[in-house]
Amino acid sequence: MENSTPIYIIEEAKLRRNLALIKDVAERTGSEFILAFKAFALWKTFPIFREYIQSTTASSLSEAMLAYHEFGKKAHTFSPAYTDGEFDDIVACSSHITFNSLSQYERFHHRASSCSIGLRVNPEYSEVGTMLYNPCAPGTRFGITADKLPKELPSDIDGFHCHCHCESGADVFERTLRHIEEKFSPWFSQIKWINFGGGHLVTRKGYDIELLERIMKGFHQRYPHLKVIFEPGSAFAWQTGPLVAHVVDIVNDRGIKTAILDVSFTCHMPDCLEMPYHPEVRGAELVDLEEATKENTYRLGGNSCLSGDFMGSWRFKNPLVIGQEIIFEDMIHYTTVKTNMFNGISHPSIGMLHMDGKLEILRHFGYEDYRNRMD
Ligand SMILES: Cc1ncc(COP(=O)(O)O)c(C=O)c1O
């Protein structure tokens, strides 16, 4: 493979550091942490994950199959709506099935008797500011509010599932938990487990692990019979590696210089446009729009035909040159699962930087991958 192929590089040392920390947090908080595939599903790394965690969570048939066949354990599955045609196959790959609504429960629960059954509940409280990521916004399609739950739960319901965080700290969880308990504790004596969803960014620098420990100590004292599960995704792959791209051309319009790269924001870093957030670029400083025409300052542009496939601007130490590496930091979680082949643009390879410094190419993509999606 040529050196110049763009590549996502997951760094084993950083992944193991996150996994070790999560294992420690799980022990200290008396809870189980499981991996949410929606954020990370590079299955060739699963043997490493299995050294630290036991289970995973799926949100579709394919993710449930990945859990069963590649991770080697049935999944904790939640989907906003199961379909008739897929439900039995999902059940076959799942240990836990959570229903998003009472109507889905009514329709399918008799076919899920081999699983532990849960209901997703909506505490009507979330501090997630970006509406795209707020599952408790008015009109949400997620979860059952307390006023809709029957006083006596059906006897086959074992658990509650509640997801209302996004890259959140323990302080947010503390405040949210008050609402969860206020709304749903009347039912806690009828269930065996509670899943507090994802969005707990325990591996972020500064996350207050002691606070989480105290919160969970109190929770276990109040409800000693409840098994607690957290299912973060981002926390596992947080800051575990970059996307390495290259400058292919430099164009200039009205003094605004754009370095066109061999990657695309819309194809290979879609959260940058969707979330939106500005990624960190190694050796460059993000500057305001007014500074776009200044020296050594560039927009970075994708190689798709979408006009908005650019971000900027970044100031570099020196002028950019064709062939130069542009390194986008922290491009593993969500990015690697969300990429697409719009325009047929070459997809970056996926590599793993091992502890001994060796780079293993896990996957290289080519024309066949593009073609096979269009059969
Ligand atoms: C139900 C559910 N669980 C877990 C996650 C993972 O969240 P995160 O990757 O932010 O930890 C999400 C993210 O959207 C989710 O919707």
UniProtKB/TrEMBL annotation:
Protein keywords: Decarboxylase, Lyase, Pyridoxal phosphate, Spermidine biosynthesis
Domain of life: Bacteria
UniProt EC number: 4.1.1.96
Reaction catalysis annotation: carboxynorspermidine + H(+) = norspermidine + CO2; carboxyspermidine + H(+) = spermidine + CO2
GO molecular function, one term: lyase activity
Any single Pfam family the record assigns to this protein: Orn_DAP_Arg_deC
Residue ranges constituting the Orn/DAP/Arg decarboxylase 2 C-terminal domain according to the UniProt record: 239-331
The protein's required cofactors: pyridoxal 5'-phosphate
EC top class named in words: lyase
NCBIfam families reported for this sequence: nspC (TIGR01047)
Membership in a protein family: Belongs to the Orn/Lys/Arg decarboxylase class-II family. NspC subfamily.
Protein name: Carboxynorspermidine/carboxyspermidine decarboxylase
Organism of origin: Xylanibacter brevis
Lineage: Bacteria, Pseudomonadati, Bacteroidota, Bacteroidia, Bacteroidales
